[in-house]
Structure formats: C-alpha cells, structure tokens
Amino acid sequence: MNIKKSIFIFLLMPLALPSTAQAMHISEGILPTQWALLWYAVAIPFVAWGLRDLRIKSAREPFFKPMVGLIGAAVFVISCMPIPVPMAGSCSHPCGTGMASILIGPAMTVLVSSIALLLQALFLSHGGLTTLGGNIVSMGIVGSLAGWSIFRLTRRLGLPAWGSAFLAGMLSDWATYAATSLELASALHGTGSMPKLLTAIGISFLPTQLPLGIFEGIVTAGVYCFIAARRPSLLECLGVERKRCACELCECEPKTGGVQ
Amino acid sequence: MSLLSELFSDLFARQDNALARIDPRTKLIVALSILAAVIYSPTPVFPLAIVIACVAVTVAIGLPCRLIALRLIAPMGIAGVLLVLQSMFSGSTPLWKFPAFGFDLTFTREGWHTGCLMAARVVGGVSVMLLLSSVTPAHRVFLALRSLGISKTWVEIAMLMYRYTFVLLDLTADVTEAQRVRLGYSNLRRGISSAGVVGGVVVLRAIDQAVRTNEAMRVRGYKGEIPLGLLPPLAWRDAWIITGSAFVLSGILISLEVLFR
User: What are the residues facing B94 on neighbouring strands?
Assistant: First the structure.
C-alpha cells in the first residue's frame, strides 16, 4: 500500500507547485527544536571555516571581500532565475551552489549560502530562521562540497571543462535535494518509518528535481563556457583553471561593455 | 521595479510607524521568541492567531496585499503538502478513506492533527518573518545581528550582497528583456542557452562591479574592513518590551500546555 501511496504522491506533487519549486528551502516551523538545533550545530563550524578562509584571503588582498560579496550576489540572482520544468508544466529555480563552489570554492560558498538563505528567509519567505541551519547544511554544505569535488575530480580525470561544470551543477542540485529529503524525513517521521517517509519525499521531489538538476547542469555549463570564452583570465585568477598569466586578482582589468 | 526586486526590497520597512521606531535588536529578540513559541505550541490555534495578528498589522502599516499574498503563497503551498503527507503517512486511526486513481487512500486522524499543527506552524513562522521584515530595514537587521554577536565579516558580506543584489537584478532584467526581444526564449533549447548567457553576464558584471567597488572604497580609506555603525544601548522601553513579551508568551504557552496536552 505504501508503494501505491508513493505512486499517488508522485502523481500529486506537480499539482502542489509552486510549493515543490521552493522545496530546496525547508520552510519556517517545519523542523522540531531539537532537529533545528542539531542542524545549526552542524552548520556553524562550516560557516566559521568560510569566515576564516575569507579573513585569511582578505588580509592578503582586501579586494577579496567585495569580490566574494559580489559573486555571492550574482549567484543569489542566478538562483532566482526561473528555469522551465516541462514535466511539471511550470518553472523552478536553480540552487546556484554548484556554480558558486566552482568559482569561489566550497568554504566561501557555505558562507555566501548562509547569507543568501537568511536574506531569502527574511525578505522572500523562502526557508526560515529556525530552519536556517538545516538549509545551510543541505544547500550550502552538501551542495557546495558535492559541486566542488565533482568539478575537481572530473577535471583531473580529463573531462572537458563544460562537462565537469555540467556534472557539478547537476549533481550538486540533486545532492541538495537528497540532503533536504533526509533532513525532512529524519525530523518528520514521528512514530512512522523513516525510510518510507524518505522514499515518499524523495519520490515527491522527482518530477521537478530530475529535470531541474539537468537544466541546472546545463545552465552551470553555459555560465562557465561564457566566462571561459569572454574572460578566461578570470577563471585562472580565481584558481579554477591552471594559471597561465602572471596577473593577480586585484590587477585584473575590468572590461566594460558586454553582451546584452 | 521587477517583481523580485519589489519583494526583496525593504522600501516599506523605511516608513515611519510605531513598530519601525523600536530598536531592531528588540524586534529581532521578540520575533525569535514568538517563533520559538509558535514551534513549541501544542495546538494550531496559537500559530493561526499569530498569522492573523501579523497579517493584520502588516496590512495596517501599508504593505500592499498583493505583496503579502506573494510572500505567503509558497509557504501555504508547503503547508498544504505537509498536511497531505502527514495525513497519509503517519498515524493509524482511519479518518477518511476514498478511492483515487484506482487506489484506496486513507487519511488518518493522528496524521491529520499533526499535519494541521505543522501547517499552522509553517504559516505562523513565515508571518512573523513577514512582519519583522516589513518594519525593519535590512541594514538595521544586519546591525542588530552584529550587536547580538554575529561575526563582523559575515555582516559586511551580507551588506554587500544585499546592496548589489538590486544592481544585478536590474542587469538581469535588462539582459533577459533584450534576449526575449531577440526570441532568445522562443523554445526550450534557446531558453536554456540564453539562461546560461545571462548567468555568465551577471557573474562577469559582478566581478567588474567588485573591482569598481573596491577602488571606490579604497579611495574612502578602505583597508579590508567596512566600518559598521553602532546601535545605541538598549533603552528601558526596549527592556520592558522584551521582558513583557517573554512573560506574555510564557503565559500563553503554559496555558496552552495545560489546556491541550
């Protein structure tokens, strides 16, 4: 019967949009106190890691702080871009953490995600203050570590940059949703079975997240290819690609204009 | 102003009213206390009362109903999904049974009650955030967080991110509009390709803006730390507000505990 129920939920979930479209953020009030505190405890060391990393880098080069802030804002804006999800007949939006972790590394991505999630909770009602820890863990930590490690690993294995960026974007998105499902199931199963609820939540995410992950991968690859074509030195300066020029980050000359 | 900019903006929080004049630390502490009370509440009555109160105050201070609805629609959808999931997957006492798509679906009594409680908590919590952000400008929230011990570097990055999000949102809107006019979103393939270009343009423009911002800040004496203004010490009135709300919330929670558990 539970499999039947799962199938029914699978069929039902696209009808519940836009709720599933916002589902990467666990909403305010969903997590019981002990779980909310646990996820905060898990998230805080990683945010501290990002802060430490940023302090060290900005002590060497003060330009680093505004750059991280601006790249954070850019990724936040990109994460608000609507992406069509044909299976659900609607739009969703990318996480952006895969792309951010490629550009600024996982530590700084966790930091930027924590800020983006707070801003979204305060001003867009996506996520919440009590669930901020859980959301940082799923989106910031799991998403960025998955994106960064997959990008690095596939580059070492000799995959072209666009392919690595695609895999990083796609798998970081799916990893974020897998972590969100786990957080929800562990907190909400009550007296019922956790694996069953985890399966149900996982299945309920499938109609939107399978295609969304693929599209996020494509968009991440598109962004990467665009930067690589227009400003390859930037990727070298950020340490994403092997450095071929002698310029330092602070000395990169901005090019005015661009594509509109 | 695009819809997202409008939603994200703290324009309405800059209006002058009794709530806007309260110290941001006090508002943050009281909002967190109400959130805790909403989560601890054993009955949906209290969170729903908070929803009504917060929405009423938000309407009264002049936030357009359209924006309130836009902010609440997604959490309400999530609340609905939670209600269905809980009703179907937890509890054992059948409440409703009905056939759908060839299956017998059973909603349980315990699951329905838990689902209602969780749904009320979601909407209640989000309403508190809605009210807080409607009466407190973003920079005041960040200053309050700094005063409450959040790292200075974190607050600096948050301020930069918030400030430049609007610049980049405007840029995104311009580029997207230009692409749309050139049929950049006429089919799925072109749409995804165009989205990649917009993303790339936004990242490149962000880096250019970072260089300009850095130069502008250096001219003004920036040496790696943005000076943050200090909030004045908490006044007696704020202390009374915090203590009073703590008493009221504790009283309500104890009464609900006695009545409903």
Answer: B108
The encoded tokens of residue A63 equal 């330009």
B203–A9: do the CB atoms touch at under 8 Å? no
List chain A residues with CB under 8 Å of B212: 254
Residue A68 lies in a domain: yes
Residue B175, chain A, CB below 8 Å: the answer is: yes
With respect to residue A10, please indicate whether it lies within any of the assigned structural domains.
Answer: no
Which residue in B has a C-alpha nearest to residue A224's C-alpha? B200
CA distance B196 to B198: 5
Model pLDDT for residues B124-163, shown as the tens digit of each residue: 999 999 999 999 998 899 999 998 889 999 999 999 899 8
Contact: A22, B151; criterion CB under 8 Å: no
How big is the CA angle at A43 (ends A37 and A49), to the nearest 5 degrees?
145
The yes-or-no verdict on residue A42 having pLDDT over 80 is yes
Would you say residue A1 lies in a domain? no
CA neighbor of A132 nearest in space, from A246, A28, A239: A28
Q: Is residue A260 part of a domain?
A: no
Section A77-90 average pLDDT: 59
Classify strands A83-85 and A90-92 as parallel, antiparallel or unpaired.
antiparallel
Q: Of A36, A84, A231, which is closest to B188 when you measure between CB atoms? A: A84
Say whether pLDDT at A205 is over 90. no
Query: Most confidently modeled of A20-24, A48-52, A60-64?
Result: A48-52
**Cβ <8 Å between A29 and B195:** no
Closest CA to B130 of A22, A125, A115: A125
- How big is chain B, counted in residues? 261
As for how many domains chain A has, the answer is 1
- HSE of A88, CA atoms in CB hemisphere, 13 A: 27
Q: How distant is the Cα of A43 from the closest Cα of chain B, in angstroms?
A: 14
| Beta strand extents in A72-211 (DSSP E only) | 83-85, 90-92
Task: With beta carbons under 8 A apart, name residues in chain B contacting A62.
Answer: 214, 218, 222-224
Inter-chain residue contact B82 with A32, CB threshold 8 Å:
no
Under an 8 A CB cutoff, do A73 and B122 touch? no
Distance between CA atoms of B60 and B134, rounded to whole angstroms?
11
Asked whether the CA dihedral A55, A57, A58, A63 is positive or negative, the reply is negative
Inform me whether the C-beta atom of residue B40 falls under 8 Å from chain A C-beta atoms.
yes
Task: Give the CATH number for residue A164.
Answer: 1.10.1760.20
